[in-house]
Design brief:
- The chain is of the alpha/beta class and 281 residues long.
- The chain has 2 domains: 216 residues, Rossmann fold (3-Layer(aba) Sandwich); 47 residues, Alpha-Beta Plaits, CATH 3.30.70.
- It contains 10 helices and 11 strands.
- A 9-stranded mixed β-sheet has the order 3-6-7-2-8-1-9-10-11, with helices on both faces. It has a two-stranded antiparallel ribbon with strand order 4-5.
- The longest helix is centred in the C-terminal third of the chain and has 17 residues.
- The N and C termini lie close together (8 Å).
């Protein structure tokens, strides 16, 4: 089973839930592969005390132009929807590599065969075995505009023999969609505040668009108001778990301690939630 854990906004507790669920399952001898897809700011490794890691680069195709063959006809620039190429008459073709999506279309449409594709590294993937689970996360290079190629590379490494947990990036942009799509279930973590409720509604619409079944976990459930609960009731969205506003959880988080080490009750709730998902999926 592939479970994506996301949120409409940052700071709701999705990494707390992702790491906690992974550790709770591992403690029950359920094989787990935890994948941190928040490649712009990964932090799950901070809670797992990772030491020995293997790394591999993530590379994408970008065009390289042979100036001796290029006639500056501009066909490549006309084709590129992402404006990664610009034709300067009587001068040269400019390449904006960070904007290139690596589709290879410019090479195909070039009438003088002046373009070939070359690899460019945009990030790295780190892999390890920790706490008896497979753990993988990606790091996007500073200054890169697109996180989705790194997320795609991460998802290709998902171990089909294990329960896979994807810790999604915050928000509802392309990175979130790339993480969630093709998952068996998506858990959306929210909080009962005006900001949390507003962003949750956006996340719900996105998950519905990609046709992935989903449920809600309410973190800091005893603050704010009942807007989230009423919204879920009115839209037949299951509330899978409620986590109280617990100072011990906050202190543990600040020290890089997983929620499963705060109290046995949290581990029980996480396992109960997992069993309910197994019955659904």
């Amino acid at each position: 089973m592939k479970i994506a854990i996301g949120s409409g906004k940052g700071g709701t507790g999705k990494t707390t839930l992702s790491v906690g669920l992974a550790l709770a399952l591992t403690d029950r001898d359920i094989p787990v592969h935890l994948i941190d897809c928040d490649v712009e700011e990964p932090n799950a490794h901070l809670f797992l005390k990772v030491t020995n890691e293997n790394s591999r680069p993530v590379e994408v195709f970008v065009p390289e132009i042979d100036a001796s063959l290029c006639t500056i006809c501009g066909e490549c620039a006309k084709f590129c929807q992402f404006k990664a190429l610009a034709a300067i008459p009587d001068s040269k073709i400019l390449i904006f590599k960070e904007m290139c999506h690596g589709c290879g279309g410019c090479e195909i449409v070039c009438p003088s065969n002046a373009i070939k594709e070359v690899f460019r590294e945009i990030g790295i993937i780190k892999m390890s075995q920790v706490a008896r689970m497979d753990f993988t996360y990606g790091i996007l290079n500073v200054g890169e505009a697109m996180a989705t190629p790194v997320i795609k590379a991460l998802k290709k490494l998902a171990n089909p023999m294990r329960t896979v947990i994807f810790d999604a990036p915050p928000g509802t942009a392309c990175s979130f969609v790339e993480t969630v799509v093709d998952s068996d279930y998506c858990i959306l973590v929210t909080e009962p505040t005006p900001f949390g409720f507003f962003d949750l509604k956006i996340a719900v619409e996105v998950v519905r668009k990609v046709n992935v079944p989903f449920g809600i976990v309410i973190n800091r459930a005893d603050i704010g108001d009942d807007s989230v609960v009423r919204f879920c009731d009115e839209n037949n969205i299951p509330v899978l778990m409620k986590i109280p506003y617990d100072k011990d959880v906050a202190v543990a988080y600040s020290k890089g301690i997983p929620i499963t080490e705060v109290g046995k009750e949290y581990k029980k709730q996480l396992l109960k939630m997992y069993e309910s998902l197994r019955a659904i999926v």
